[in-house]
């Protein structure tokens, strides 16, 4: 009996010793003794030596395969495609990232390593799920800077739940790696810590793959928006996610958030002008075919004779430099001594900005300059507004304003990274938002002299701003007072009925008495009644106006959207009525533009309103800009323009002193060449449009590929680059304070 007990004990110890020896040799040493190992014959015979290594080290494959899998699910879910030029880079970067995460999961024994692996996998999974849901709601990607306002985003919990419901299948697929590591981690993860020698091998593999991927990226430096440019000099989420994957884009976002952009000055234009590429006369460049009383423009104006552009541009710049006083009478410029600023500046980046803006071609004053000088101005950013909401029978006030005011037939409202806030920022400041941050909030610490509140306040105007939702949302409590406004919203002085969304009509009723008694006045409104979600069950404004749209031939969501826009129309009707009663309707200019297109509708639903399938890169962003004053003669403007052009256009009409060289938009009513730029660096002019996703140039109607030269394409691309780069620098460097610090 005792002998049997001893034998059993020896056998147990023998089995434990064999197990430890196997782990030691295979999991740590990887020596040639593998062949001598007594292991399960079936496994050894079936997979051989290499197969045995892979079997025992299969955990190192988990993270790379899991990340590549989630990237595939994500791309199919968001972009409805997988195979493109970025697949190669995505696999390389995902593999190196996965192997690095493997190293982080090998410093302890199985139990702790399993917990670490679950936490890491859950964190990565959360990134993908958050981005899928956020993109569903806002049609843009979530920037890490927005974590500061995550609590505010959660106010839209209904929309978030709806987005989760619409994406439940891809979300479940994204959860597969987390479920797998949770269920099979004990079998997948080795029992003991991994030796440093093994970590060294994996670390070498990480370094090697990362070097190969980086070399491949830096060698791809051909054409506009090259792979190298996207990786090292700019964060353009739509393109970056497509080219590198979501996880790498997140890493680049973290890098840029911490260290800023490493923007190369090389390749940026020396002067902001289309003249180097466009070989037509300046009168044709700026020809916008103005017509009155709704007359169609005269096409004969397009046949003007070609001339050398550089002469015209140099004349403008030389006039400003040689005789600033005389130039101010002809151009919208201020007396800025850029040469003196350059000489006295020690910061090379600010010096570069001085040189750049010194060479920007200013816009000419024109017949509309000062048309509303001394008059009142009401400037409105309308939530989710679009040209599809303007219908004679449904929204008669908006229709009246469109038909009787300035009518912009080719206007665009691009969407930017921070949705509504960036839409406001562009319209109010004529600057490109910086990717990855809340530009409007950040601008609250800067000197912003050109926004209408500050410009008109120094002329003695009463300047007020209102928003019928929470006053701290997007930190408007910081940005809007900095624009020169006495700002009121829900929570700091504006008392409106608590609904979702709130009523624009009620906001007008509660605020007009605060400024109509004083003249002159300038008032800014940010509306909310047009906000998604467009349904009759969860949207108070849609429910309120449901009866007015029930007979329309549209789906329920589209009818709900129009019902929300009816509230805006009624608000404008109430506003105009009060202006008329106060006797100032003819002395008040009203400007209305959207913050973004109605992304709460699907593309198919927008197609219902448009009457056809909507093209996604350009047509989707066709917006509307209403510019109206009672009794004015209607004017039609047919050249391309965008929300970035609103501020200089209003500044010119109001006759205020501003410097057109320091803004990224252009006075639409001037002879400046049109340029519309989009967040993914696509662009559109009167001659062509460039699709950055397809990297394809498309001539405008009436133009041919032969007339759009390579030089033209390059010149426009450089200008787009310049506007993005120097808008960021203006924000980061508080540049206007540098220019006007002695004023």
TrEMBL record:
It is a multi-pass membrane protein. GO terms for cellular component: plasma membrane. InterPro entries: Alkaline_phosphatase_core_sf (IPR017850), OpgB/LTA_synthase_biosynth (IPR050448), Sulfatase_N (IPR000917). Pathway: Cell wall biogenesis; lipoteichoic acid biosynthesis. The chain crosses the membrane at residues 56-74, 86-104, 116-147, 167-189, 201-220. It is found in: Cell membrane. Keywords: Cell membrane, Membrane, Transmembrane, Transmembrane helix. Residues 268-326 are annotated as: Disordered. SUPFAM superfamilies: Alkaline phosphatase-like. Residues 268-281 have a biased composition (Acidic residues). Residues 291-300, 311-326 have a biased composition (Polar residues). Pfam families: Sulfatase. It comes from the Bacteria. PANTHER family: LIPOTEICHOIC ACID SYNTHASE, PHOSPHOGLYCEROL TRANSFERASE I. This is Sulfatase. It comes from Ruminiclostridium cellobioparum subsp. termitidis CT1112. The lineage of its organism: Bacteria, Bacillati, Bacillota, Clostridia, Eubacteriales.
